[in-house]
Amino acid sequence: MNAFPTVQTALITGASSGIGATYARRLAARGYNLLLVARNEARLRLLADELTARHDIQIDILAADLEQHGEIERVANRLRNDQQISLLVNCAGVALNGSLAEADIDSTHSLLQLNLLALTMLSSAAAVRFSLAGRGAIINIGSVVALLPERFNAIYAASKAYVLSLSQTLHAELSSRGVQVQVVLPGITRTEIFERSGSSLAQIPPSMVMEVEDLVDAALHGFDQGELVTIPSLPDGDDWHAVTQARMQLAPNLSRNQPAARYH
Prior knowledge:
Elements: E1 9-13, H1 18-29, E2 33-38, H2 41-54, E3 59-63, H3 69-81, E4 85-90, H4 105-133, E5 137-141, H5 154-174, E6 180-184, H6 193-196, H7 212-224, E7 229-230, H8 237-250
Organism: Pseudomonas abyssi
Family: Belongs to the short-chain dehydrogenases/reductases (SDR) family.
Protein name: AraC family transcriptional regulator
């Protein structure tokens, strides 16, 4: 599924730490040139220095706050105009701690701007150019909470359900045009997102927490295999296929000209 040219560039958002920084390290080892995007320019420069010292690649950094509409558009313009970019990895995201009733407006707006709008606008820019080129790939980082919304914060879970749905639709729209789409659904992963949201990993059983390097390695194996949905923790992939088949079995009855008999 990786029909890319020998020299290619990956644009990675949220690249200053966690999943994004780990994707940068793994893709650099694969020979990708990198365009690293995050708010923290100092961290990006440290990562760029580390990777250029280890690998014969080119790295550019773009400091941008993707909670700001103008900054999203600045990165989207780079995607539209940089012909070397063949892979978009949407890692930037935040979480909230607490219920919807407890959430303040500013924090909610910031989450929606970053988790939904930024990811959507960048995916849209990539979809246009990659489909015209007949090649390219988009990797979106979602979460297993999209499948278990009852067990987590409402706003965050809903935002990740959106990422899953958007990615599935993008696949349907773009696969015939030579563009690969993958959505990765991590479980609990050891990153800074918990502390930033005011939560902690301290009370979570270690058996439920995956190291970020293991997560990204598994996700890239799924990408190499052409998976649309990659759930690194799921032991049996047939379980996900069964869910997909069950959902498709609903299709003939989801829109009919009469209500079901139980509503008469």
